[in-house]
Amino acid sequence: MTSKDDAGAAPKPVRQGFGAAPGRSKKPTSGSEPPEGAESDSEQSEPKPDLLPDDATVDLVKEREESGVDEVLAELDRELIGLVAVKQRISEIAALLLVDRARRQFGLESERPNLHMSFTGSPGTGKTTVAMRMAALLYRLGYLRRGHLVSVTRDDLVGQYVGHTAPKTKDVVKRAMGGLLFIDEAYYLYRPENERDYGQESIEILLQVMENDRDDLVVVLAGYAERMDIFFKSNPGMSSRIGHHLDFPEYEVDELVGIADLLLGQQNYRLAENADSVLRDYIGRRREQPRFANARSVRNALERARLRQARRLVDTDGEVSKDDLVTLTPDDFLGSRVFQDEPLN
Amino acid sequence: MRITQGQFSYLPELTDKEIFAQVQYALDNDWPLSIEYTDDPHPRNTYWEMHALPMFDLADAAGVVKEINQARKDHPETYIRVNAYDASLSRQTVAMSYLVQRPTNEPGFRLERQESNDRVVRYTTHAYVTDRPSGQRYSAQ
């Protein structure tokens, strides 16, 4: 292979397109020897900070302000009623991440905290909402590069035939990189009654990702408590890779009323003065009935109250004021099925 | 002979950090990325082999970089390039395309002159490696 015959010596028309640039330094790259910095590609988005001397101090309050954690936490407090234990844990996580950041300024390396979580609780207790907040929070703290939420269920992860599952799961994982992967009703992934179920394959890939790519994404598994227990029992590896098991308790009546107020405020409605106690009574009764889904049921109840209000307004003579349009009266709630058997005294 | 194809080919090889940044740039522009490889270095070899499927709906470059590293592992000693496709109306074409791996030894090309009728000479470039069957071109060296 002599260089004489190389395209470098070829006539002009042929040389176009891949002309050898003379004097260029050759720097061959092979697959087995990736260029510098290949190993640390997960760290590369954050520039290396100048280390502080040992006797310096870090103002945590200032750090806190700069990171904007307080805004997220305050928003959490304002917009999520109840969930005291959950909020407590979230602020603990936020504090840990803040301290971790301060430590890094001194060059104190510690392993990145395990941020994978499981959210267990009854329907409508705010698991998805908290997951969304969590993504924003971790983004503010610099632990997620993008802070987006990818919400998936079994359908998105498990394929329909042999060899379909792995690419599908990996695709979802790639989409969630830099953000938070929220797997709703995660227990459906494991179906013990069918030993050939592809869900197991998906679980194995997730386990691997949760271990190897924990710098790039946070996995949150959510589902109803009892079934998640069974899921974790049959997949002990999954349980041990999750750092935070958060339990979402059922809401109390007071909290549900607070949620109703919040929802009404968001949609520019308000309760008539005497409707307050009716709503409270309604929630108390509905709570005892089967298929009660906490905040979701409250939202549905408000939807139906809006329907009844609309019908009531249309049935009147036609002249309505702004006040009429925004006010929900007791009648709008009393029309509900829960009051049918024993009417309000 | 170091072949120059695609973007950045007259620059020093991109480091993984730079590749990460370039991928992120493409993603920020909503361009889905795909990875291709080949062991035929001819400049007119347009259609390379696909490594896995094109990646849609990604937000962060980490996913693509992982796939690039996987491609490097699966296909050592080949050319690997990353394409970013701009699907927006009126463009609908490849917006970025650059090499992220090349073989250690690139023997280069031979110029072939074919003497045709009436003293006409036709020129052909012939990659030395293509004398060997695909799959054995760079690994045997």
Summarize the structure.
The complex is a heterodimer of chains A (345) and B (141). Chain A has 345 residues and is α/β, with parallel strands linked by helices. In chain A, 48% of the residues lie in helices and 8% in strands.
How would you describe this structure to a colleague?
The complex is a heterodimer of chains A (345) and B (141). With 345 residues, chain A is an alpha/beta fold. Chain A has 15 helices and 7 strands. In chain A, helix 3 runs antiparallel to helix 5, helix 7 runs parallel beside helix 8 and helix 11 packs across helix 12. In chain A, 32% of the residues are buried. By secondary structure, chain B is an alpha+beta fold. Helix content of chain B is 19%, strand content 31%. Chain B is globular, with a radius of gyration of 17 Å. Classes of the chains: A alpha/beta (345), B alpha+beta (141). At the A-B interface, helix 7 of A face helix 1, strand 2, helix 2 and strand 5 of B.
Low-confidence stretches of chain B: none
Number of helices of chain B: 2
Structural class assignment of chain B = alpha+beta
Mean model confidence by pLDDT of chain A: 80
Radius of gyration from the alpha-carbon trace of chain B, in angstroms: 17 Å
Element pattern of chain A in H and E: HHHHEHEHHEHEHHEHEHHHEH
Taken from the alpha-carbon principal axes, the silhouette of chain B is globular
Q: Give the proportion of residues in helices of chain B.
A: 10-25%
Quick one: how many beta strands of chain A?
Answer: 7
Question: Tags for this entry?
Answer:
heterodimer; A: 345 residues; alpha/beta; five-stranded parallel sheet; two-stranded parallel ribbon; 15 helices; disordered N terminus; B: alpha+beta; two-stranded antiparallel ribbon; 6 strands; 31% strand; globular
What secondary-structure arrangement, pairings included, does this model have?
The complex is a heterodimer of chains A (345) and B (141).
Chain A: H1 12-15, H2 60-67, H3 69-79, H4 84-105, E1 117-121, H5 127-140, E2 149-152, H6 154-157, H7 165-176, E3 180-183, H8 199-212, E4 218-223, H9 225-234, H10 236-241, E5 244-248, H11 253-266, E6 270-271, H12 275-288, H13 294-315, H14 322-326, E7 327-328, H15 330-334
Parallel strand pairs in A: 1-4, 1-5, 2-3, 3-4, 6-7
Helix pairs in contact in A: 3-4, 3-5, 7-8, 11-12, 11-13
Chain B: H1 16-28, E1 33-38, E2 49-55, H2 61-74, E3 79-86, E4 93-101, E5 109-115, E6 121-127
Antiparallel strand pairs in B: 1-2, 1-3, 3-4, 5-6
Helix pairs in contact in B: 1-2
